[in-house]
Specification:
Length: 152
């Protein structure tokens, strides 16, 4: 099981980089969150694959994790604080995440095998969920659309 860290003095030291995307999927004023198999909540997203653009990575992850086809991605920002760490069984990585936003016109989503649940949440709902640490620092920026793109 992966472990996620942000500004944690007890985090293991990274040995390599991990590039990925996170996507804020909006339905009206609510954002789609993924209840991960590890028990925490996070944005839809995943690792960039060789030969893939960031936009293509985001679109692929949206399709794989929700069944939705996204077209009009908007850049929210780049989150590269070196304290964002993902520890896997085989390696420890510094996480660089490029975050996008997309507005959808349906709340009908398909859950993937990677998730326990998908849920549209208001800003207030987020205060009551255990958000994965590497996404905790992204969440506050999602509702400040006039300040995009963000470089952290």
């Amino acid at each position: 099981m992966n472990r996620y860290y942000y500004k944690d003095p007890y985090a293991p030291k990274a040995e390599t980089l991990h590039f990925g995307t996170a996507i804020a999927i909006w339905y009206h004023d609510q954002i789609l969150l993924d209840h991960r198999r590890d028990g925490q909540w996070g944005l839809i997203g995943g690792a960039l694959e060789l030969g893939e653009s960031l936009q293509d990575c985001a679109k692929r992850e949206i399709l794989e994790e929700t069944g939705l086809i996204a077209t009009n991605l908007q850049l929210i920002g780049t989150f590269s604080d070196p304290s964002r760490i993902i520890a896997r069984q085989d390696k420890v990585m510094q996480c660089v995440t490029i975050c996008f936003s997309v507005q959808i016109d349906t709340n009908k989503v398909r859950i993937s095998d990677e998730s326990k649940e998908l849920k549209f949440c208001s800003k207030e709902d987020l205060d009551h969920l255990q958000i994965v640490p590497t996404h905790q620092m992204i969440i506050p920026y999602l509702f400040t659309r006039n300040a995009w793109p963000i470089m952290m």
